[in-house]
Write a structure and sequence with these properties.
- With 280 residues, the chain is an alpha/beta fold.
- It has two domains: 172 residues, HUPs (Rossmann fold, 3-Layer(aba) Sandwich), CATH 3.40.50; 94 residues, Pantoate-beta-alanine ligase, C-terminal domain (Pantoate--beta-alanine Ligase, Chain: A,domain 2, 2-Layer Sandwich).
- Helices cover 39% and strands 19% of the residues.
- The chain is built from ten helices and nine strands.
- A six-stranded parallel beta sheet has the order 1-4-3-2-5-6, sandwiched between helices. Strands 7-8-9 form a three-stranded antiparallel beta sheet, covered by helices on one side.
- Helix 9 packs antiparallel against helix 10.
- The chain is globular and about 55 Å long.
- It starts with a strand and ends with a strand.
- It binds pantoate.
- Pantoate binds next to strand 2 and helix 6.
Length: 280
């Protein structure tokens, strides 16, 4: 696996592959890799001739009070994991490559980004859309793979790809979970042993809520029950538990549509913010 830090080297390798007629799959990450990231690498190696992963902790998607400085960084371990999964190239740019001196351009997906996470992390999707657009222009992949754990992120990126005419297919990968149901996340590393024992309640409550709704409980009631169960388990601040249209992310409050919608939640356990979602 080649470890590349400059744009010139990245472009020369990718253009060589393209000249040979090889397809390129791309898995953007912020490192601290877990089985969820590696399952995206597996999807890419199965569907594309060459696979590139990127590791870049993107400052513009963190608010000043968030965990940019403490975000877990383990580059050597990440390289070993990627190499073990057959990744062909890992791109690890410096901040100055992604945000050159004097930079000011931003990409925003204002309406899709304003839903769900929007009121709680108003800076977040602007930062994600900006860095992903830059990475897409740098890597020029045929397909890009994103985990469904960050469900709104996938919808924001799909919207951006359509709006900015990127010729890239966005492929969502299913959420990887621990045996007790907790969605894998690099931020799970922040949880204490007691918090880790409480954390699976987020998924369990969404699961129970889905069953209640399927059995005819009105969404408003089932969602309020889920919110109460998550609080009761020890989550301090349940920011949202919503049923949404899977494409538009618009809230569903009265009757369920006859197509699968999405149950989606965000809540704080101590200083750690957890998100999760399931198909209904
Ligand atoms: O999901 C992530 O890890 C990040 O938001 C992404 C897509 C790599 C952009 O920094």
């Amino acid at each position: 696996m080649q470890v590349v830090r400059t744009l010139e080297e990245l472009r020369s390798i990718v253009r060589g592959w393209k000249r040979e007629g090889l397809s390129v799959g791309f898995v953007p990450t912020m490192g601290a890799l877990h089985a969820g990231h590696l399952s995206l690498v597996d999807l890419s190696t199965a569907q594309c001739d060459r696979t590139i992963a990127s590791i870049f902790v993107n400052p513009t998607q963190f608010a000043p009070h968030e965990d940019l400085d403490s975000y877990p960084r383990q580059e050597q371990q990440d390289h070993d994991l990627l190499r073990g999964r057959g990744c062909d190239l890992v791109f690890c740019p410096e901040v100055s490559v992604m945000y050159p001196e004097g930079e000011e351009t931003r990409v925003s997906v204002p309406q899709m980004g304003a839903k769900l996470e929007g009121p709680f992390r108003p800076h977040f999707f602007g930062g994600v859309a900006t860095v992903v657009a830059k990475l897409f222009n740098q890597v020029e992949p045929d397909k890009a793979f994103f985990g469904e754990k960050d469900y709104q992120q996938v919808q924001v990126i799909k919207r951006m790809v359509i709006d900015l005419c990127f010729g890239i297919e966005i492929v969502p990968g299913p959420t990887a979970r621990a045996g007790d149901g907790l969605a894998l996340s690099s931020r799970n590393a922040y949880l204490s042993a007691v918090q880790r024992a409480i954390a699976p309640v987020l998924f369990a409550s969404l699961h129970r809520c889905a069953i209640r709704m399927r059995n005819g409980t009105p969404p408003e009631i089932a969602l309020a029950e889920a919110k109460a169960a998550i609080s009761k388990a020890g989550f301090e601040n349940v920011e949202y538990v919503d049923a949404v249209d899977p494409g538009t992310l618009d809230q569903i409050t009265d009757t369920l549509p006859d197509y699968p919608c999405r149950l989606i939640a965000a809540a704080w356990l101590g200083k750690t913010r957890l998100i999760d979602n399931i198909a209904l």
